[in-house]
Amino acid sequence: MFVDRTRLLSKNIKKLLRRGATDNLHNIINKTHTADLAGIFQFLSLSEQKAFFNLFDKVEQKAMLFSELEHEIVLSLIEAEPAEKVAEILERMPGDDVADLLGKISDVRAKALLDLMTKEGSKDVEELLGYDPKTAGGIMVVDFIALNQETTAKEAVEALQKEYIDIEMPFYLYLVDDYGYLQGVVSLRQLVVIPPATKLKSIMDADVVSVRTHTDQEEVAQIAAHYNFLAVPVIDEHNKLVGIVTIDDVIDIIHEEATEDILKMAGLGGSVKYIETQTIFKSIRKRLPWLLASWIGGVIACYVVAHFEQSLNKLVYLAAFMPIIMGMGGNVGTQTSASIMRGLATGRIDINQIWRIILRELAIGFCLGFVYGAMLSLFAQFKYGFEMWELGMVLGFAMICSMTLAATLASSIPLVFHRYRIDPAVATGPFVTTFTDILSVFFYFKIATLLLHI
Amino acid sequence: MFVDRTRLLSKNIKKLLRRGATDNLHNIINKTHTADLAGIFQFLSLSEQKAFFNLFDKVEQKAMLFSELEHEIVLSLIEAEPAEKVAEILERMPGDDVADLLGKISDVRAKALLDLMTKEGSKDVEELLGYDPKTAGGIMVVDFIALNQETTAKEAVEALQKEYIDIEMPFYLYLVDDYGYLQGVVSLRQLVVIPPATKLKSIMDADVVSVRTHTDQEEVAQIAAHYNFLAVPVIDEHNKLVGIVTIDDVIDIIHEEATEDILKMAGLGGSVKYIETQTIFKSIRKRLPWLLASWIGGVIACYVVAHFEQSLNKLVYLAAFMPIIMGMGGNVGTQTSASIMRGLATGRIDINQIWRIILRELAIGFCLGFVYGAMLSLFAQFKYGFEMWELGMVLGFAMICSMTLAATLASSIPLVFHRYRIDPAVATGPFVTTFTDILSVFFYFKIATLLLHI
User: Do A258 and B263 touch (CB under 8 A)?
Assistant: First the structure.
C-alpha cells in the first residue's frame, strides 16, 4: 500500500529532523512529489511539522504544499508566521484553495491577509469567499481557458503559450461570445489535430453542460461522473462563465460525501477526519450527543417494560426473548435504511414513488419476519415443549411485528427527511434504531398479554 | 437534480414508444448525450428497452450506448440479438468494456462472440479477460499513446493526427524506450506549447508513477486521487507498459467501493446495485443470510437470560433495563467500527499500532459508559427511590461494562480481520452487534446477581 510508503518516509524524516540533517531533508523536499510531502505531515508531531516546513525554501514550494495539506495543519503552520509571509504564499496558490483556507479563520484575520495580497489575487479570492463552500461556486477554480469563439486554432495555441501558463488542468478550451456567455467547448485534443486556420467555432461542441454557482457540490460531482467530464463549467446568474470545477475536486467531493454518509449513519456526525487526528477527549465529546438519543430511547423502553411488569412477573421467561425480538428488528432496520440511503445518494430512488418504496420495504420486512418468526416459534417449542405452542405464537407474531415495523420506519423516515431537505443519513443512525427498539418491546409484550391472557 | 431530468425524459420516451412515434424517437437519440440515453434505460421496462434499442441505427451509437449501460441491461438486450450483430457492436467498444461484459456471460458464449470479432479487437479483449476484474489489469484501457522517447513534438502531433484518433482520454503521452519500457510522461498541454523540434525526452517527467497489472483497483484509485492524475499507467511483470487506467474509471471505483462498504456494514452483502433493480424476492434472498447471524445470536442471548431466570424471578424489574444496556452497547459499537473502517479505507490507521488503537477505543468506550452509566444510575434512583442505590450501582457498572466491551470488540474485530486480509466491512455488520448483545446481557445479569446477592 502506498500509504505505508508515506508512513515509512515520515519515520525517516523524523529521524533526520532529530539529527538536524538539513542537507538530506532539503534533498528529500526537492525530490519528492508535493502530494507525498503533504501525506508525510499527517504523521509528524506539531513541532516536527513546523521544523520540516521551515526547511521549504521557495515560496512556490510552500504554496504547492499548502494546496495539498489538510486545512488544520496549514492553520497551525501559519499561526506563528508573520502575516506578510503568509500573504506571499497565499498569492501563489489557486484562488479556490485560498478561499477554502480563509473561510476557516476569523473574518478579521482573513481580511488582514487579503489586504496584504496583491489586488489581482485577492479579488478572485474575495469573490470565491462569497459562495457557500459546498456549492459549485465554493469549489470552482477561476483560472480557466476562455477564448472568443471566433478564435482560430493557431491563435488558441499562441494564447496557450503566452497567457495560460499557470492553468491547473487545461484540457478544455471554453468558447464565449462577445459578452462572455458560454457558447461551446473544444478539447485540447481536438485543438492539436485540426489545421491552424480552423475557427474554433466550427468544431466546438455547442451542447455544453454547465452548472450554476449555487449548484450543490454533490450534484456537480454526479454530473462530472455521469458525463465523464474532466471539468464542469460554472456560470453565474447572468449566464456568464465564471469558473470551472476540475475532476480532482470532484474526486475529493465523492470521497467526502461517502465518508460523511457512513459516519452519520453510525451516529458520528459528519466530520471527515474522524479518527487518529483527534484526541480521546475530542472523540468522546463528538460521540456523546449522538448516544443521548439512544439513552433516552432506552429509558422510554424501560417504562414500556415496567408497564408490563405484571405479565413479566407471571411469565418471567418472556424476558429471555426480548434480545432476539429487539435485535432482529434493529438489524433489518439498518439493512433497510442503508439501502434507501444509498438509493437516494445514487439517484436510483424516485422520491415521487415514496409510497411504492415504503410498501416494498414493508413487504420485505414482513417476509423476513415471517421466516425468522417461524424459526423462533419452532425453537421455543423445542426448548419449552409443545404444550407451550401459545408462546410460540406470541414469539412468531412479535417477530413479524417487530421486523415489519422496523423496515417500514427505516424506509419512511429517511425518505420523509429527504423530501423536507433534511440529510437522510442523520435519520438512519441511532434514531431509527432507538425508535424501533421501543416499538418492538411494546408490541412484544402487548401481543404476549393478549394471547397468553395475562 | 439531473436524475429527475432523466426520469422526466424517460416518461416522454415511454409515451412516444406507445404511440410509435419513431421520428421523434430518432430525433431524441441523435440529439441526446449517450450517458443520458443510458440513464433513461433504467426507467424503462424490459420490452420498452428492447423497442427503444432497436431504434438505434448506427453500430457506433449502439457501441457507445453499451459502454455506458449497466451490464444487466446490456445482457438482456443482446440475448435476442444474433451473435454476428452483437460481435459487430462489441468490436467498436473499448476493450476493457467488452472484457467486463464478456466476464459476465458463460465462457462458451464469450468464446463464440470473440471468434466472430476481428482478430485485432478480440486479442486485446482476450488479454484483458486474463486479469482479475478488480485489479488494474481488469480495469485498464489498452488504447493509449505510447511513443518512443526520441520522438519530437512535431512527430508526436503527426502521430496524434494519424494513429491515435480513437483514444478515449488522450491527455498524457507515455514515452517508452526501444524495448517498450516506460521511461516518462508528457502531458498534451506541454506538447502544445513547446517548439516543434523539441525531443519529448528532454521535457518528459521521468519520475512517472505506475501500477502493476495485479494492483488492487482500490489502490489504483487512491494513487490517482493522491497525485491528481487523469490516468495511471499500468506495467506488466516485465515492466512493459500495457495499459492505462483512466480517471472516469477511477471515479466509478471510488463510488463502488464506498457503496460496498456501506452495504456490507449494514449487513447487505456487497452488491452495488441494490435497490430498485431487484425484485422483492431477490432482496429477501439477499438479506436473509445476514440476519441469520443475528438470529443465532438472539437464541444464545435467550439461553443467557434463561440462565439467570432465578434472579429475574426475584427482581423482575431487572428486565426493564435490558433494552437500554443492550442498545447503548450496540450504538457505541456501531460508532467505533464505522470510524475504524473509514480509517482503514482512507489509510489513516496504522495497522502496526493495533494495540494502541484498541486501547484508545477501550478508553473512549469506558468514558462514554461512565457518563451514561452514571445518568442511568441516577435515573433508577429517581424512579425507584434512593433505597434502591444498589440497583443504581448494578446499572452503572453494567453500562460501563457493556459500552467498554462493545468499543473494544468493535475496534479489534475489524482490525484483526484487516490484518488477515478479510474485508473488515463484513465484521462491522450484524456480527459485532450480535456478539455485543450477548456479552452485554450476560455481564448485566452477572453483575446484578453478584451485587444484589441473589
Answer: no
